Structure formats: C-alpha cells, structure tokens
Amino acid sequence: MDTEHYRAAVKHVIETYARFRPSHGNIRLDTVFDEIHDRYALMQAGWDRGRRVRGNLIYITLQDGKVVVEYDGIEHGITDDLIRQGVEEKDIVLAFLEERYITAV
Fold first, then answer.
1. Among 35, 44, 57, 83, which residue has the least CB neighbours within 10 Å?
2. What 3-state DSSP class applies to 9?
3. Record's SUPFAM superfamilies (predicted)?
4. Which domains, ranges and CATH numbers included, belong to the chain?
C-alpha cells in the first residue's frame, strides 16, 4: 500500500461527496481529515423539518496497510469510488460488516 496515494484517494472521495447538498433542510457537510492518526470523515450538521440533523456520513481509517471503511452512509456505497481512485480492492476492509473483507464489487 502506498499510504500517501491511499490518503489522497480517500480525501478525494470524501471531498466529492462534500460538494453535494441535501435536497431539503439546512444541512452543512463538513470534511474532517486527521492525517496524523489517519482518520477521515464526512459529517453532517444542521436542521431539517424542525429536527436537528448530525452525525457521520462517511468514516474511514487507514490501518495496517488497509483502507478501513468504518461507516458508509452513502446510499450506493463508496467502495467503487475508492477503487476508481486506485485503492486496491484487496486493501479495502468493510469494518461495518461481519465479514470484514470484500470479495467482488
């Protein structure tokens, strides 16, 4: 694994989704990049229909040469986006599934 390449790929994918705007509500999307600890997130915060909206949309860590998807709240998933950015399929771990390593995408 090329750590710098994987960092850049993860950040690119998150930044891509951060440009989208929710179809309703007053919701802000924030990128959170911690390169020291290799933690990367897309957070949402705001209001929709009188209710507070907050939490993760994407949370990824880099560990032991792998891109670990801790949480993927994107409707169609981000695995294909990571692969298109050059992340090796064998290096993607879907930590939110009981079967941790993906097979075919």
1. 35
2. helix
3. XisI-like (SSF143847)
4. 3-94 (3.30.310.110)
Q: Are strands 51-63 and 66-72 parallel, antiparallel or unpaired?
A: antiparallel
pTM: 0.88
CA distances 87 to 25, 46, 78, Å, are 34, 32, 11
SS3 3: helix
Q: Cα–Cα distances in Å, from 78 out to 25, 51, 68, 82, 105?
A: 24, 27, 12, 6, 11
Percent of residues in the chain assigned helix, strand, coil, to nearest 5: 25, 40, 35
Which DSSP letter does residue 36 get?
T
Whole-number Å distance between alpha carbons of 50 and 84: 38
Contact at 8 Å (CB) between 94 and 21?
no
- Residue 6 phi/psi, 5° resolution? -65, -40
Q: Helix, strand, or coil here: 17?
A: helix
Tens of pLDDT, residues 49-91: 999 999 999 999 999 999 999 999 999 999 999 999 999 999 9
